[in-house]
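Reopening this ticket.

The earlier resolution said the output was attached, but the attachment link was broken on my side. Pasting everything inline this time so it's all in one place.
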Amino acid sequence: MSELRTEHLIFPDWPTPHRVRAVSTTRRGGVSAPPYDSLNLAGHVGDDPVRVAENRRRLTATIGFSTEPAWLEQVHGIRVVAAETVDAPVVADAAWTRVAGRPCVVMTADCLPVLLCDRAGTVVAAAHAGWRGLAGGVIAATVARLRTPPTELLAWLGPAIGPDAFEVGEEVRAAFLALDADNAACFRPSPAGRWLADIDELARRQLRDLGVSAVYGGGFCTFGESERFFSYRRENRTGRMATLIWLV
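Inline output:
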């Protein structure tokens, strides 16, 4: 049985201060059986809880966390909680902290994980940004909780469904055009007569409008890279990756 190794993980390439650490998992390096193979970190998708616990243990051991990440019960909303207050899963879609050693974490399998930190290395956050969360304002809610000038923030966009695979209906496009007519540039017609949405670009536009211009990452496709990532859109019954950020 293989162990979780650092080559199974994604370490964001962004110019963070030395106190900030971040990582995004893939589907590799765990013990879960199909269709959750193998590093499923979610306890709500039907996987064996014993295997999920072992996968979380492996992540903790490989990264060297001193405390358990602040696992959330995500509902595609905009609630943001302080990670240090989470001692059991709470309903929220983002977490932030100024406390060292307390990882903020979101789980995804097509939705967009967004990490934030300040240039001084005093505050970090992780947000779960599917289309509903993006349209509802989860990024703005998270930025507001950091109480830091947006020009002093850095953002990183983790693995999400890519613009060639994220087919949506007119109601999704309409929701974003109601926020900003210029969001039309993030949609193009699909062969099936619907729309292909660029969730990375939608997030970048929101961050830019909030004043966060230092945005890194993006360019992944969870749907297209089946050996590397879980994808709910591709498989329906599947696991979840985790994207984490913390202070040391």
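Reporter confirms the inline version is readable. The two ends are 31 Å apart (CA to CA). The first strand starts at residue 9 and ends at 10.
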